[in-house]
Amino acid sequence: MSKRYLILADGSIFEGEGFGSRATTFGHIVFNTAMTGYQEIITNQIYHNQIIVFGAPTIGAGGINHDAYESIMPTTKGVIVRDVAEVSTNRQKRMNLNEYLDYHNIPGIAGLDTRALIRHLRKTGPQKASIVDFPDEHAFDQLNATVLTNQQVAAVATPRAYPNPGTGSTVVVIDFGLKHGILRQLSQRDADVTVLPYKTDAEEVLSLDPDGVIFSTGPGDPRDLPASVFELMRTLQTRVPLLGIGLGHEIFALANNAELIQLPFEHHGTNHPVKEVITNAVLYVPQGAGYAIDPATISHDQLIVTHLDLIDDSVQGLRHRDFPAFSVAFFPDSAPGPLEGTTVIDEFFDMMETKDRF
Amino acid sequence: MTKEIIDAMAMQRALTRITYEIIERNRGINELVLVGIKTRGVYLAHRIADRLQQLENTTIPVGELDISWYRDDADIKDREKINIGVDVTNKRVVLVDDVLYTGRTIRAAMDAIMDNGRPASINLAVLVDRGHRELPIRADFVGKNIPTSQNERIRVNVEEIDGIDEVSIG
Amino acid sequence: MTKKELKKVLLIGGGANDFGRESELDVATHQVIETLAGLGIITILIDDNPYSLSLEHPKVKAYPQAITVANVRNIIEIERPDAVYPAVGGTTAFQVLGDLFAQYDFPNLQILGMSLDAVNMVNNPALLAKRLRQIGEPVISSQVVNSVEAAFDIAREIGFPVNIKPMAPKFEASRHTANDSETLDLVLKIALKQSRIKQVVISQGINGLREVGVQVMRDHHDVNMLIGAVEDIDPVGIHAADSILVTPVQTLTDREFQRLRMAAFRIMRGLDIVGTAHIQFALDPRTDEYYVIKVSPYFDSTSTLVSRSTGYPLAIVAAHVCANVNLTRIVLPSNFAKKMAMIEPVMDRIVVKFPVFAFGEIETAGIKVNRRLNTMQKSVGSTIGIGRSIEEALEKAIRAAHFSNRVFSPDLMSALPENDLIQQLIHPRDNRILLLIEALRRGYTIDELAELTKIDEYYFYKFQHIMQLEQAVKHNPGDLALLQQAKYYGLSDGLIAKLWHQDFDDVRQLAKNNDLQPTFKAIEPSAGEFPEDVTVYYSTFEQENESERLGDKSVLVVGTGAFRLGDGASGAYVTATILAEIRANGFQSIIINNNPNDLSLMIQFADKQYIEPLEISDIMNVVELEQPAFVLVPGNRIKLIAALRERNVNVCVIPKDKYMAHGPATEEHEFAINYYFDGTDVHPITITEHVIGKLMLDKNVYTQIYQQKIPKLQLRDTSPGLYQLITKQLPLSTDLGDYILRPVPFGQIAFLNKVTGINWVRLMVRSILGCSTEADKVLLARLPDVDFKYQVAEMVGNDTDFFQHLQPAGELDSTQFEMGVAMHLIK
Hints:
Structural class of chain A: alpha/beta
Number of helices of chain C: 27
Strand content of chain C: 15-25%
Helix content of chain C: 25-40%
Oligomer: heterotrimer
Largest sheet of chain C: 7 strands, antiparallel
């Protein structure tokens, strides 16, 4: 291990010990306060081009497990943590975290005052950051000159269709960089799944005669997506039961004339209470979003607000007034995170079961 | 042997979905009236009304209907007009019951509503549709379709009077 | 029962301290009283523990009586409360409440937080197991049998290992484990003999599984939240109180963890518990199966540990939800973030809880005890270490548990024969951490050790790191990079100095000169996500320091640390009272302590809390930052007092002896003349009489008879406070040479406070700070002719079952080795 540095666009420097890959990387910096599920978080494609700061003091104790991937090729740009566990690799754990990050060319910094960093980020807000060997002027010049791509979905979503066969309901998943957790939830319910690229047109989707369609999670700002995506949403929502998750939720909202705002404080974690408006029930759910729907722009004639974050009051769920279509900003696949949000998936299946009535 | 087929969570989910479907079907909740069929239908109707209140911040009137004297197998002369407690004229009425079986209860309920006024429309919401219809009646909103034998007994429990939310068969 | 408005609530206390009962119930009770008062609800408390601070809470109506069915019933008749709240009284309150409702009917009395059914399930494991099975939660299969043959039938069915426990035992008996037929034969013989009704419970053995406890909260609207989770480093088979505990959970995958979370919620729902509960699981990492091993819907040491570790105000929130306030509507005291009550706490620190055993003290008294750890609790107290890594937290916890690092010297085990080492690896004792590190040093592989001990390999990597770091430091005296590493991972100045054969001041100075300074971090429940006005800190060696000096008028109080045998809980009582009085006199109070169950760490009593070990270097770190006007140190810390004075710290000593004194022998009487010393004059208070296991006070008898003959005591060069002269002779001699002079033990001070109705601790603090009032002077001048609140009272040692816990080879002196006491206020 050797000294490495995290530098922020605002000029701050944090020092620690490098682990994982030795690469120099650039990305947006975010912090996640979840205490379990580091592997799921690191492999979640919403963290494409992001450097993740873990609030949990130590990660890596469980190594890397075959059943905890949220994607095969993680595209996060760095892992910052106070302490990374060293564990042996044996039959169950084929790799430890250090080896895994090295293999995927992701640098990490341990031994860094992550609490000070998170408190700093709380004050300064979202910004660019870089993991470097020397925090010199050159490094900052590089950081300032770096323009991070806004074509993030294109970088992580599947370019071609693939099936995930089952014997139950037929579900089409439009992939924007989906979490495997969504597929796992569908498999548990025996769904017959086809994953389609996000540039698919409505006819192609409908030709598969789906019982329901899911617009998946994914990275970035939905306003950078092609107009066809919103058109696809507007067509499909009138034809089949539909669920939008994460980025899919934002697409659903935008397609129905709502607007997006950047959150002043991004919340990445699993500990905020979210209220289901219709029942007043409270769920704790995994969240990770930089944007939210501006409640002032939600047309009451089109959409119903179904879920609210009780801490920052952000809109966490929407439903179409006229069609069986709904969406949640959080991750109902609960990978990682509390399991109570998975009822959203159940609701989607209930909806598909009764869709014949429409 | 009784077997639970809908647990508390699933029952909540079903009522939530029915509520959303009522909004979808009616393009809103203007002129909406819920009429629960005694005994358990009334509690279910109130739960749907509570949900609508949460979502739309509007109080939907809930009527109650005891059709035990209204069945077509009762003597027609005994029929008296039953007060259901809400005005149904020109309203969009949603009848709520726990189980849909032969359809005779629903028919009686429709008669009772008609005796009370002239609604714009009547829809039917049931938690369980168990089949074996004897009349041309179908539900517009169904919690769950449960195919049953005529010998089987479907029991719907609601927390308000049974202490637990559950549908069991046996 | 319909829920009506709550106006009056009866709190059933927990009674005397004992194994597994420190001050955690008092900590919770105090906050519950305050919270309910804030909601306009009147509280009544029954408890007979003289060390209870809650009994002195100004907002409670106290019944200082034994917690019995008759007394509780009587209070219900008099007070007619709307509800009774047993969660603040632990198992004692549950037993009494269960018995009470079995005998009497109270149609208008609700039980806060649960139904009578749930109370009965807590009291009867068989009922609980039945209910858990009904709701689909796996429990360990067990059956009651009355013969060896029947037991073997079961054993054949469920397979070895099996646990055997006598039913209705003649005394509280521990569980026996049998791994084979021979052992089963033997333990059945013992257990059947121990049972009054000749029946035993045979159950599936789960020794070796991983033990995880979760603390959950649920409100009346079925909102469930997870407050924290604790992992035992030791496997099932060692009592949780004797285990080394870690929070947050380290070795569970997210999936394993979330499964337990949901199971805990289902249990809360299935038992319809409102408020908080601690639910323990045994987890088999190989098969992914789990078992529910215990459900505790009351405050216990885990609930306080979780509350301290997360910074989440558990008792305050529990009291709110039990009083029908929704989690989403709770308004917390202003120092918490606005909506904190409903945010699941997250942590950016590691907390290790380390058990404290009293084997050393007992063996010093010449009595052999069984040091082997098993399912029966042997520890008498605990400490926590908080850090930013396992290594740091563990090092700090060990240091906190042992005032001196000598007992935990890394070389201590080097002479242990190989056979003993293996024996102790399989049958762990109190010193197992050292043993495990020694085994690593001798070249045992981590896989081997993990298999042998059932401890997760993750921890062995951490132990190995500590060992390697110690070795590296040892072989490189003065190496700055290593010093930095050592500090970063929690090695103390004292330990480094020892490894380098240097004075610890030199190590400190070297660190200081190279800018290796401790940084203090706040303990708050959001891991930095929300800015919170927090007063609790721990030290680490990182970039940012969050603790700022309070000001010129601060007073630092050094706490009494872990409970040990002796008047442990009274230390908590006295320290908390001192802190409160310091504040009352316009000073700001600061506490440094490390016992998670200690009253003094409640944020209500001090302006600032440092959860730190209590070695000189830890205290100096705080002293240098805070520069307090005074530092108050208990008198038993002789070396510490000297060391602080050497460094020109303004120390005031709280009179306390180094060791608990022996009590009188059987049949012997001892008399204590108790005095208050205000710094100038000595004022007699009263005489107490001590026999084995009991202390008696009868004001009239003693005062009238002996008043004229009380020896005139003069004190100089010592702190204000309470002192006593001890004699075995009557009539009293006037010659001071016939007496032993000593500070009044804290336990007796607590008792005197309750009996006299005068708070001597507060008086002492005012004397120390030079803040005595006119009223104080008037009172002292009138002594001993002042009216006491009670004229006749006793303090009786708790009937602690030492045999059960420690298997000592001789009688334990219940004064010197007190676990807890009860008071009887007779007149």
